[in-house]
Amino acid sequence: MKNSVSNGRVRVRFAPSPTGSLHIGNARTALFNYLYAKKSGGKLILRLEDTDKARSEKRFEHEIMESLRWLGIQWDEGPDVGGDAGPYRQTQRVTLYQMLAEELIHEGKAYPCFCTAEELELRRKEQLERGLPPGYDGRCRSLTEAERSRFMAEGKPFTIRFKVPSDQVVSFEDAIHGFISFPSNTISDFILIRSNGMASYNWAVVVDDAKMGITHVIRGDDHISNTPKQILLYRAMGLVPPIYAHHPLILGPDGRRLSKRHGATAVSQFRREGYLPESLVFYLVGLGGIVASDGPLKGMSEIIEAFELSHISKGAAIFDHKKLTWINARYIRELPLSSMERHLAPFLESWGVTKRFNQEKIRQIIACGRGNAQTLLGFEPVFRIFMDSPVFKDNFFLTPEERETARDILEFFADLCKQVVQLDEEEYIRLAKIAMRKSGQRGRRFFMTLRKALTGTDHGPELVKIVPLLGKGEVMKRLKSALEKL
Ligand code: GLU
Question: Which residues touch 330 (CB under 8 Å, ≥6 apart)?
Answer without folding.
Answer: 279, 297
